Amino acid sequence: MKPRIVVFSISALAGTLREIARDYTSSANIELVPKAYEDALAYARNRYYTDTADVFIAAGSNAAFLQNQLEAPLVIIRTDGFDVMQALASARKASSAVGLVSYEHSFDELEQFARAFDVPLSTRTYRTPEDARRAVRELAQLGVQVVVGSGLVTEIAQEMGMDAILIYSRQGVVKAFDEATRLASAKATGGVRRNSQAYTFHTEQDLIGSSAAVQRLRSTIRLCGSIDFSVLIQGETGVGKELVAQSIHTASPRAGKPFVAINCASLTESLLESELFGYEEGAFSGAVKGGRAGMFESAQGGTVFLDEIGDMPLAFQTRLLRILEDGTVRRIGSASSRKVDFRLLAASNVNLQQAVEEGRFREDLYFRLNEMLIQIPPLRERTEDIGELAGYFLRTTPVRVSKSRFDEFLNAALPILQTLPWPGNIRQLKNVCRRAAVLMLQESDLSSWRAWFPDLITANPTPISIPTLPDMPSESFDNMNALALAYSRAPKQERATIVRQALNLVGGEVSKVVEGLGISRSTVWRLGKGA
Q1: Pick from 184, 188, 199: nearest CA to 257
Q2: How far is CA 166 from CA 75, 108, 390, in A?
Q3: Residue 183, Cβ density class (10 Å: 0-12 exposed, 13-18 middle, ≥19 buried)
Q4: 3-state secondary structure at position 418
Q5: Dist. CA 355–CA 344, nearest whole Å
Q6: Closest CA to 192 of 291, 352, 55, 330
Q7: How far apart, in whole angstroms, are the C-alpha atoms of residue 309 and residue 267?
Q8: Contact residues for 474 (Cβ-Cβ < 8 A; gap 6+)
Q9: In sequence order, what are the beta bridge partners of 147?
């Protein structure tokens, strides 16, 4: 059966997609669907879970929306600096006043290009259709005559009487079609499964936040991508360990090969064995005809990601160590081994070194996995990113609420959100934002927002009353609640003073400051003791 690919587009890109799709009629069944956002999500889920589609393709803000909601293989039509420069060169022929509206981020190559080719270039970025319309309107007011951007952007520009050029190149679309065809073929042969996905789309740019911790994490991801070592990713539940793993794969020379992920805690031992190692026909009752490759074979040339590896039974740890050492795997029921080539990434939300000391994890495997170590900080240690994360989750929720309502909620809630312990980390914050968006449709008075989250607020070890921060220096705060609120609002250079004030308040007991301010012990020592 041919691969079944659904392509979403409601913009000017649809013509290019339709033209290129004709070249794939002999190798795939490609359906172009004029839907976006919630409509596209509902359509994709229905097609995927009724097993009438294998892979989906989208671009721009529509792709960003789908990748955060859709539990199915999604290929994003991407652009790079070369695509942008080609489009700008074409735009320059039509007018000397050129504008670029790109999705979420700008391109570093543009300033050099603009100088070299004498192109007066005005740039804007967007995340939502409303952002895109506002950006194009601003460019029109500046006298820009030609706009380069996504299909959505070019349509808006044309509505406003401006010339427009698509940012996407034909090569970029062809690359997406090729990748979708490959993934659909892999799914048909067992390479892509819902609990063991052989596709990837995240990069380090998908990490939301501007804190020093996130910037260091992006840098570490790029470093790990360039070195073909095993990487152990540690962090609490909900911090984004798989996103980091996918980003490492995308940044590596193996990016064009499969990314196969499996959660070691989600399967029984018998299922885990067949998923990891595969099996031959007739190996056990229910084995499919012809047998099936395990995840190590499916990832040939690519990356294997073992999530929650701390829950892997000891017997499997021994077999995994052997595979890592000799590079071969033996299917269940087979008398021979197969050579495999893959890069291993593993993640754990428990301390594996402690598990080794307690005899629950093999020490030799721990050292084999830990060639490179990434420790993802919990959300409570990067509170300066909460506003940006919450804004993103609110904007991308399927619930349609006005931007002014989202802004009103954030202005009221952020001082509290930045002081909570967030045991579920980013995943928990995302759920809170989605719940808030739904309740905003019912509640007109946002000042009572705290009543929407009794479970969230009572989880705070130091509940604080919201409102206005007293207009006084931090030295005069005489209770931990006021200090916690002050810390969440203070510029970075003033936080050491607040931490020292908190230490003085509790007689130097670090644990009380950790609990009261909702920060880590290392932060207390760095700001309060080391200052």
Answers
A1: 199
A2: 19, 19, 31
A3: buried
A4: coil
A5: 20
A6: 55
A7: 12
A8: 483, 486, 490, 494, 497, 498, 501
A9: 99, 164
Phi, psi (deg, nearest 5) at residue 303? -130, 140
Name residues of the chain where pLDDT drops below 50.
189-200, 458-478, 531
Three state DSSP letters for 121-190: EEEEEECCHHHHHHHHHHHHHCCCCEEEECHHHHHHHHHCCCEEEECCCHHHHHHHHHHHHHHHHHHHCC
List phi, psi (to 5°) of 412: -80, -40
Confidence (pTM): 0.53
Lookup: tokens for 100: 């670029």
Residue 468, pLDDT score: 32
Q: Which pLDDT tens digit goes with each residue over 40-87?
A: 888 888 787 677 888 999 988 788 778 767 767 888 887 766 677 777
| Backbone CA torsion sign across 195, 193, 70, 345 | positive
pLDDT at 97: 82
Residue 79 · residue 101 · CB < 8 Å: no
* 204, 247 Cβ separation under 8 angstroms: yes
Q: Do residues 460 and 417 touch, judged by C-beta distance below 8 A?
A: no
Structure tokens at 322: 């052997």
- In the chain, what is the greatest distance between 2 CA atoms, to the nearest angstrom? 77
- Record the tokens describing residue 28, joined without a space: 């795939």
What is the reported pLDDT for 485?
64
Q: What is the pLDDT of residue 82?
A: 63
Instruction: Give me the residue label for tokens 């934002």.
Output: 433
Calpha distance 187→293 (Å, rounded): 12
CB of 143 closer than 8 Å to CB of 125: no
Do 274 and 404 form a contact (C-beta atoms < 8 A)? no
Q: Which is it for the CA torsion 38, 39, 42, 47, positive or negative?
A: negative
Backbone angles phi, psi at 11, to 5 degrees: -120, -170
Give the H/E segment covering residue 215.
Answer: helix 212-226
Give the pair of three-digit tokens for residue 458.
């009572």
Write down the pLDDT at residue 27.
Answer: 85
